[in-house]
């Protein structure tokens, strides 16, 4: 039974032998009394089960490499070491209803084509030679590059290098789609797609950012641009930093966008790149919606829910919904870059986005 609250308008019903017997009769009929759970399922403010977490790439990397020796890619489907939140183990989620993991592909290895209702994205961590084919568009990606495989699109991955493995971060909305009982999975009937004759077609069509192809019609809910190179991303964020102070809560931050609509890259997940100047520390804020961060460059720390997490390049950490958080670049001379993906598009489309800033005498959390 949910906790009682001595507040007018809230459930405050105590137990009695008669009520306990009554609840038992209801249970046998597949029913129950709302007042026994009302305060729990209608909280005063968000009560996320996810907790702030930090995953050290330095510590995880040997285990990711070991998986490449222990398990064949064709047996695993995708060889991934998933990152699981201590409060969301039952969902295999990293934060909220978002999943993430570290996928490794050996030199010369490729995975079979498949599609699913869940949307997915990739952020390359290390290794040259990575490729992915999305709806026939072969994309060549390298460290720092961001790519999407929207829901329902055929996609497959591989590593054309003959020397080094490729490791990238996977991000998916699998827990969300499963929570909605809406997931599907299908293996390509030919196991592999036939790629188009030009590599990175979508990038050549839309990568300029300042022009769009005349007469090009696009009615799908996701971005027609499937790959976002690190070089262009880094340049865009660095250029913005030359003319803008940025946000006091996120530093200089830019969103990866659908070039046709200017909106998020996919309906359920968005992604950002942010820059923290040398020794910059942001103010704390919180918002509905979960965020998973990947350190693209630099070193620093974040205080999330009152806990300090020190991070460096390639580390991953998460900010659960409605958790106070702030970031700091601990390097006095170099910029820090944080890639992140989130469930904001879904939260905002449902009218559930809310944000607050943290104010007290110090302006910062204890951590």
Description:
With 367 residues, this protein is of the alpha+beta class. The chain has 2 domains: 1-44, no CATH class; 53-357, Jelly Rolls (Sandwich). 18% of the residues lie in helices and 29% in strands. The protein has helices spanning 17-28, 38-41, 57-70, 73-76, 174-179, 201-206, 230-243, 344-349, and strands at residues 53-55, 80-83, 99-105, 114-116, 120-126, 130-134, 137-141, 146-149, 155-159, 166-172, 185-187, 227-228, 252-255, 270-276, 285-287, 291-297, 299-304, 307-312, 316-319, 325-329, 336-342, 355-357. The strands form 6 sheets. A 6-stranded antiparallel beta sheet has the order 1-19-16-21-14-13. The two termini are 34 Å apart.
What's a quick, concise take on this entry?
With 367 residues, the chain is of the alpha+beta class.
User: What name does the CATH topology of the largest domain carry?
Assistant: Jelly Rolls
- SSE order: HHEHHEEEEEEEEEHEHEHEEEEEEEEEHE
Number of domains: 2
Largest sheet: 6 strands, antiparallel
Report the mean per-residue pLDDT as an integer: 94
Strand fraction: 25-35%
CATH superfamily of the largest domain: Jelly Rolls
User: How much helical structure, as a percent, in the residues?
Assistant: 10-25%
Any idea what the radius of gyration is?
Answer: 23 Å
What low-confidence regions span 5 or more consecutive residues with pLDDT below 50?
A: none
- Total strands: the figure is 22
